[in-house]
């Protein structure tokens, strides 16, 4: 809304205007110095296109030309191929459980790696929504309700965390901010990599990738897998699923 294009009429915005806007988004750093990812810019372009389609159908602007299809979208990055050996996983969990770390850090990270839940979903999950082997999410990134099936190990992690918190019956499971989670997790991984330079650079979001790959070994049906991970598109799910060629060869017999 702060961009000059927002002050223009829909009819007056051309493909060339949006192409120049896209170039600005690619070149302009955000607060903190990071640059927008190709997927972020692609999503913004798709939203603009949706506005034009909505205007044509719902606002009776039938002659309105959508300038977006002519705008080249940034190429998607290749999905991150992040894997951890059993020894590396144990090292990460041990580090996250160190006394100097926030007590919640191990539990929220382990659940991310077991369930493929997004960080935002974990931070909004509530105790009263947990029933046995199912955790109900009222609001997700896709704007839909979703039920998360929990493995026995996931239940054990949640049970231990609940015990540490004094057995709460309701409220958020992890009442912490996005910055608290990402910042404390980043420091922990930095400590691991400092002591073990060969340790992969594993972001918190990478835990979701790891979970998707682990879950695919148990759920061969892609529809079942997407129901667990919450992906609407199989194409997007493929970016999170990083199978090992040796595992696939074993399945072939």
Shape, please?
globular
The pLDDT mean sits at 86
Number of strands: 3
- Name the beta content range: under 5%
What do you see in this structure?
This protein is mainly α and 253 residues long. The protein has two domains: 4-70, no CATH class; 86-252, Intergrase catalytic core (hpI Integrase, Chain A). Helix content is 51%, strand content 4%. It contains eleven helices and three strands, in the order αααααβββαααααα. The chain has helices at 15-27, 38-58, 86-96, 103-115, 119-124, 152-164, 178-195, 206-216, 222-229, 234-240, 245-252, and strands at residues 130-131, 134-137, 146-149. Strands 1-2-3 form a three-stranded antiparallel sheet. Helix 4 (103-115) packs antiparallel against helix 6 and helix 4 (103-115) packs across helix 8 (206-216). The protein starts with 14 loop residues before the first helix and ends with a helix.
Can you give me a brief rundown of this structure?
With 253 residues, the protein is mostly helical. It has 11 helices and 3 strands, in the order αααααβββαααααα.
Output the keywords:
253 residues; mainly alpha; hpI Integrase, Chain A; 2 domains; three-stranded antiparallel beta sheet; 11 helices; globular
Q: Mind sketching the topology for me?
A:
Blueprint: H1 15-27, H2 38-58, H3 86-96, H4 103-115, H5 119-124, E1 130-131, E2 134-137, E3 146-149, H6 152-164, H7 178-195, H8 206-216, H9 222-229, H10 234-240, H11 245-252
Antiparallel strand pairs: 1-2, 2-3
Helix pairs in contact: 3-4, 3-7, 4-6, 4-8
